[in-house]
Structure formats: structure tokens, C-alpha cells
Amino acid sequence: GVRCFGSPRVLVEPDPAAGFAVMKMRNPPVNSLSLEFLTEMLISLEKLESDKAFHAIIITSDCPGIFSAGLDLTEMCGRDPTHYAEYWKAVQELWLRFYLSHLVVISAINGVSPAGGCLLALSSDYRVLADNPKYAIGLNETLLGIVAPFWFKDTLVNTVGHRVAERALQLGLLFPPAEALRVGVVDQVVPEDQVQSAAQSVLAQWLAVPGHARQLTKTLMRKPTADRLLKERDADIQNFVRFISRDAIQKALRAYLEKLKQKKS
Amino acid sequence: MALAVGMRVLTRSLLRPWFAVMKMRNPPVNSLSLEFLTEMLISLEKLESDKAFHAIIITSDCPGIFSAGLDLTEMCGRDPTHYAEYWKAVQELWLRFYLSHLVVISAINGVSPAGGCLLALSSDYRVLADNPKYAIGLNETLLGIVAPFWFKDTLVNTVGHRVAERALQLGLLFPPAEALRVGVVDQVVPEDQVQSAAQSVLAQWLAVPGHARQLTKTLMRKPTADRLLKERDADIQNFVRFISRDAIQKALRAYLEKLKQKKS
Questions:
Q1: pLDDT tens digits, residue range A6-26?
Q2: What is the mean pLDDT of residues A41-46?
Q3: Contacts with B208 from chain A: Cβ below 8 Å
Q4: Where are the domains of chain A?
Q5: Residue of A nearest to B182 (CA)
Q6: What are the residue ranges of helices labelled H in chain B?
Q7: pLDDT at res. B9
Q8: pLDDT (average), residues A210-228
């Protein structure tokens, strides 16, 4: 068979005969989107996109119980403005590249998925969630005292509509599977041991469509949203650096990190 | 405590959460007259500038009606200067309630057409009493007039384009079950539980860090508000021109006449 490849934190299991690869996130313990991890994901995506054998990827997690905990708060706390800018640019890049990928992207969500983890899932074309009441998914930034960037908001609005997004974002809601399906954050909920096979079944439907027509249609649907960030990308980075550098925000993040430390011990 | 003639604002000084109940009492039907609009805006401003308050519940003190909406006597048989003054106040009501940094919950305890529906849609969350008479919707077309684009935008933001398109054209008033199903309201409860349901919901909203919630609300709503703000005067002129038309004045007079006859 074909050998797996990838990097320390991203394992790629290719199936070129079937035209897809499984991208397994393994940045224990919680697949935090650290700068290094983001870079590895982008490299893996680029490799798969430039290999004509691949038309689709399934993103999933290799860390039990978690899809991704989202942005790595240690990258956003107690660092200097240059680092914040570098980090945010990488987060933007993750969204832009996965959201606009010409590949079919399916998220096989096999764990809890807050904030940035939810964004990654929302960037894909289709979401399958394991039916485990612990596996909640949503953009819960407000609960940490921070605010989701406008392009997180846009992606959520495009998925669940303005009203649901408005309430979900303000309340920082994490939707358990039944609710996530009801409001449309995810497209399908299946028993936990069927998530990977369900994702692969769905792939077949997406790959049956003439590729160029599907890709152009995806661009038609998503480019306006992506352009809203692209036309002010640097300003968005500066906004982030300014916001995250604020004493009150640094204090809130430190308090949250402290709380997490205490939970562990 | 009463803050103004047309308004009764009850403040609840619970330790947590701090909120006020804004009870509309402009009998018989809480029409949004110029005076009433002014009093609502004054009350809102007072509550917004008092750091003790983080939320308001808007409800009605007139039985069976939340608000009948715009006061047609302000729009009929008056001069253009008055129409302009009135419309500016209607815009101000929407802008201020829609963008308020306070959590705004509508406890809808009566029928809520047109402007009444707009007021409810401007809030963060809507609880409706489960009474089949308490229909809610933007029914302007049935009166021969057209909902302004920012009424339409607020409805689209709430129920989506398709539902809004059909609802606006047909001037639909949704009874509770339908209103819940399409998403015009968020919750339907027995009539005697509307106020307590609204207060329960408040707790969830006030549990979120206030600054983060407010910035997020602005993120969600400012683009919609800006669409009016950037052409506010043009919107007033459009309204004055439209409402002054003979055909529209005739339709409004006929409707007011019909209402008079219904009463007697």
C-alpha cells in the first residue's frame, strides 16, 4: 500500500487509488493550534493540493476525545507584538487555505471542538460529528473574555444563518451533537465508531461531481467571504495585536491558563 | 417608579442580575406615536447611562397587545416637516434598541404587528405568550404600504431571506407555533409564564463577560445599522415622498376609517 507521510504533528494517510487522504491531527494533548502545528497543517495541505492524485481530504483527530481545542493561548499570552502578528497571520492562513481549498474537505469530528477547532471544522465542505454528548462544538470566545474575529463570524453565519450565529457567538455556545445538527453547525451525527466510515461514504457523493464545476462553484460561494479578509488582512493582524496586547485581555488569558493548569492538577 | 407618562419602568434591584422591566403603556394599543417614541428613547438612555443596569425586558402594560406599531395618525393628513420628524424618531428607535449595549429581551404578551414586530426583532431574544391571538409579523403590505429596507434587513437577519421574502410580501402575521417554527421568536411559553421566562433567559445572557458580549453584538449588528446610517437623510426623504402620495394618504385614511368603524 501507499506509505503514510506527514510531520510530527500531522499524520497523512493517503489512499490515492480512491483519490483522498486522511489528515490526522496529533498535537497532544488537545491539538492546540500552535504556530508549529499550523505550519505543519498548511504544509500537508499544500502537498496534497499539488498532487493531482488527491481530490479530497478527511480531517480528523488522533488525540482521544478532542478534535481541536483551537488557538494555542500560550502563543497569545506573554509574548511580544511581533510574535502575535506572526501567529495571527498563520491563523488567517489556516482559514483561507482550508476554506478555499479546491479539494473536497470533510471534517470527521471525533472529539470536542471549541473556538478555533470549530473554525477548522466550519472551513470544511461537510461535517460529520460523533454522537457523544461530550463532543460539543461552537465558537465560545466570549466565555474567555475575547471576541471572535469577523471572519470567524462570517463563516458561522454562512453555516447556520445570522440569527443562530448572533445568539451562539454572544453566549459563547458549545452545541452538543443533537443541537449542533438541529441548528446546522454539523451536517451529520453518527455513532462514534462510524465517524470515519461515514466521512468516507459522504466523500463519494462529492467526488462524483465533475471536479472543475464543483471547484468553480465552491469559489463562487466562498470567495466573497474570503475577500472580506483578504482586502484588509494587514489591518486585521494589527487589530489582533492591539487587542490581544491589552492589559485586560492579557490578564483574562493568564487567568484562564491558570484555571486550566489547576484543572489538570 | 414611573419615568414618564407613556412608560412605566420598573427597576429590579436584585443583587444579580441588574435589569429593568420597561412596560409600555400607551393605551389602547401602544401605538408608536412621536411622544411615545420619545419617552421610550429617554427611558432607554437613562438605563444605558446607569452602570447598574445590564439588561432590560420590554413588555406591554396594555392587555392583549404588545404594540400595534407605527401611529398612523402621525403619517396621515400632516405636513412634510412632521412626517420627517416622525420618521427620524422611528429610525432612532430602531437604531438605539438594535445596537444597545444592554441585553434586550422582549416579553411579548400581546399581538405585535408591523412596528411592534420591529421593536421585538430589535431585541436580543424574544419570548412570546402561547395565545393564538398573539400573532407577530411585518404586515405593512396589507395596509398598502411597504416596509422600509431596514425593517426588511432586521427580519432577514432573524428568519433568513426566503421566509422574509414570503412573509413581507404576504404581510404575514405568525401565530405563536408558526412564529417559533420560522424563528421570528425564540421561545413560546404559557401566557402566565412570559415574564418569568424572560427573566430566566436573562441570567444566561448576563453570565457572559459583558465587554466580550457587547463587542460581539456590535460585530453582528453594526453592518446592518450602517446601511441605514450612511443614507439616513435619504431614507427620511424617501419616506416623506412616499407617505405624501395621494394614493398612500387615501389608503391610510381608508384604513383609519375602517378601524374607527370596528371600534363602534
A1: 899 999 999 999 999 999 999
A2: 98
A3: 142-143, 170-172
A4: 5-211
A5: A163
A6: 34-48, 80-98, 114-122, 149-159, 161-170, 176-182, 194-206, 210-229, 232-244, 246-263
A7: 60
A8: 97
Place of cell 462514534: A192
Determine, for residues A171 and B208 on separate chains, whether the beta-carbon distance falls below 8 Å: yes
Distance in Å, alpha carbon of A203 to nearest chain B alpha carbon? 29
Do the Cβ atoms of B104 and B53 come closer than 8 Å? Answer: no
Residue B59, number of CB atoms within 10 A of its CB? 22
> What local confidence, expressed as pLDDT, does residue A265 receive?
75
| Residue B187 contacts A where some CB pair is shorter than 8 Å | no
Q: Nearest-CA distance from A103 to chain B in Å? A: 29
The order of strands in the sheet holding A65-66 is: A65-66, A111-114, A137-138
Note the ipTM here. Answer: 0.93
Backbone Cα Rg of chain A:
18
d(CA B103, CA B125): 9
Which chain B residue shows the shortest CA-CA distance from A140? B208
Tens-digit pLDDT profile for residues B215-239: 999 999 999 999 999 999 999 999 9
**Spatial separation of the C-alpha atoms in residues B225 and B216, rounded to whole Å:** 14
Q: Which of B216, B218, B221 to mutate to test the interface with A (most CBs of A within 10 A)?
A: B216
* B53: helix, strand or coil: coil
Chain A residues with CB-CB distance to B213 below 8 A: 142, 170-171
In the three-class reduction of DSSP (H, G, I as helix; E, B as strand; rest coil), residue A66 is classed as: strand
Based on the residue annotation, tell me whether B109 is a catalytic residue of this protein.
no
Give me the pLDDT at residue B1, please. 44
N-to-C CA span, chain B? 35
pLDDT tens digit string along B178-195?
999 999 999 999 999 999
Helix or strand holding residue A18 (H, E): none
pLDDT band at B119 (very low <50, low <70, confident <90, very high): very high
d(Cα B126, Cα B106) in Å, to the nearest integer? 5
In A97-156, the residues whose Cβ lies within 8 Å of chain B are 141-148, 150, 153
Contact A170 B211 (CB under 8 A): no
- Whether residue A171 lies within 8 A of chain B, CB to CB, comes out as yes
Give the whole-number percent of chain A exceeding pLDDT 90.
91
pLDDT tens digits for range A144-199: 888 999 999 999 999 999 999 999 999 999 999 999 999 999 999 999 999 999 99
CB contact under 8 A, B217 and A170: yes
- DSSP structural state of residue A73: G
CATH number (1.10.10.10, 3.90.226.10, 3.90.1150.10, 3.40.600.10) of A5-211 reads: 3.90.226.10
Q: Which residues of A are catalytic?
A: 71, 116, 140-141
Identify the CA nearest to B28 among candidates B75, B76, B77, B67.
Answer: B67
**Grid cell in block for residue A67:** 478534535
